[in-house]
Specification:
Distance between the termini: 29 Å
CATH class: Alpha Beta
Structural class: alpha/beta
Order of helices and strands: EEEHEHEHEHHHHEHEH
Largest sheet: 8 strands, mixed
CATH superfamily: Alpha/Beta hydrolase fold, catalytic domain
Number of helices: 9
Length: about 290
């Protein structure tokens, strides 16, 4: 039987969380971090395909305290009324949640787990709070690299449809070239738009580099899992290292690229795999 408890967090008691205590019943200890799982986008704290629930319960069985909670305005948590921007509001929510977990439950150290936007929030926050000692990042935002584009177009070149479009002058490469050389013909279809192109701006790269550097400098260990379904964002294992060459991860980084896994770990086997990997890493990787 799972012994889970509702916890209202933050000064306004407006953040709703579920605490899944360690099944061994041991009291919170400074030597044992609690795992806190963040929202992915606007998905309720149960997570995509209820993966967060399954993860917290698996961690509990291994003697790890786990917490899942909703950021302001998501799920059961009330919206903020202080006018903070989206990023700062999320980071403030995380701080308030950790403050409550420390004061009410005695936790001193934390591992943050996040998928997609949750991963980005986790790494940006980690460098601001020394209580965070470990990060599990599932498909975090990563700028494109030269090798990314080499892989991307090499794979497209193997498709018959791509060659046919090149021959007909309809391939995005032709369209982009036309725009660079004079804006293209009047009435031509616009070039393919990369939905994550903003990650490649100098400002975005500098912001993310600073976030990862701060998280690393504060002593965090990282488990990063990239899935092949996010080919628009990353398409090889070492892209994180190539995108942030000035960050010295050293042996604090465990980096994996899963070819046969979708972004939200839809098949049960995929969820079991990622939950097992996290449950294996947390005790060993967050010391």
């Amino acid at each position: 039987m799972v012994n889970e408890q509702v916890l209202l967090m933050g000064p306004r008691k407006a953040l709703v969380g579920i605490v899944t205590p360690a099944a061994d019943g041991a009291a919170a200890s400074p030597d044992r971090p609690a795992v806190v799982v963040l929202n992915s986008g606007i998905i309720h704290r149960v997570g995509a395909n209820r993966m967060t629930v399954q993860l917290c319960r698996q961690l509990s069985q291994q003697g790890v305290d786990a917490v899942r909670f909703d950021l302001s305005g998501i799920g059961d948590s009330e919206p903020r009324d202080d006018g903070l921007g989206l990023l700062e509001a999320s980071l403030t929510d995380i701080k308030e949640a950790l403050d409550t977990l420390e004061s009410a439950r005695g936790f001193k150290r934390f591992v943050l787990v996040g998928l997609c936007s949750g991963a980005d929030h986790a790494v940006v926050y980690a460098g601001r709070d020394a209580r965070v000692t470990g990060l599990v990042l599932l498909d975090p935002s990563i700028p494109h690299t030269p090798r990314y584009y080499l892989n991307h177009y090499a794979r497209r070149a193997t498709r018959l449809s791509s060659w046919m479009n090149i021959a007909r002058g309809k391939h995005p490469l032709w369209q982009a070239l036309g725009q660079r050389m004079g804006g293209g013909a009047h009435g031509a279809e616009p070039a393919e738009v990369d939905p994550r192109a903003d990650l490649d701006t100098p400002q975005a790269k500098a912001f993310l580099t600073q976030a990862y550097a701060a998280a690393q400098a504060s002593g965090n260990r990282f488990l990063v899992v990239l899935t092949a379904e996010r080919e628009d964002q990353h398409n090889y294992r070492e892209q994180l290292l190539d995108a942030f060459p000035d960050v010295s991860f050293g042996d604090r980084l465990q980096l994996e690229y899963w070819e046969d896994t979708d972004h939200t770990f839809t098949p049960e086997a995929s969820r079991e795999r990622v939950i097992g990997r996290i449950a294996q890493w947390v005790p060993a990787g967050a010391d």
